[in-house]
Amino acid sequence: MKETPQVGYTYDLLENKPIVEDTPMEGPQVEFAGFNEVNATQRDAMDKIVSNHLKRLSSRCQRIETIRVTMKGVHGHNQKKVELHGKLVENGKNYTSEVVHHDLLVGLDLALRKLEHAIAK
Hints:
alpha+beta; Double Stranded RNA Binding Domain; 32% strand; globular
């Protein structure tokens, strides 16, 4: 049975500053950028979403080097949406996804699903 991949942060989500760790993390490195307004509850939900997708991605990929998710706010016509860009590097090959959605967590899930579909092709 495969071990569940660990979700690691290279940025502090609340402070939006790099985290220095003494011990190397096992599994793929997950990076979040632009998530400085995310609260603890959303961060916990994000961890669960990313962990679930990492399980599926690690079964399809030989070696995931990094996964990076970048968030940018989109404002217009009294609607607040988020734009999420996903990037996965596997054995030097880049896969990307882009999603615009009004819900951060649904958008994150969709961006990671697009990465899964890109790898499956």
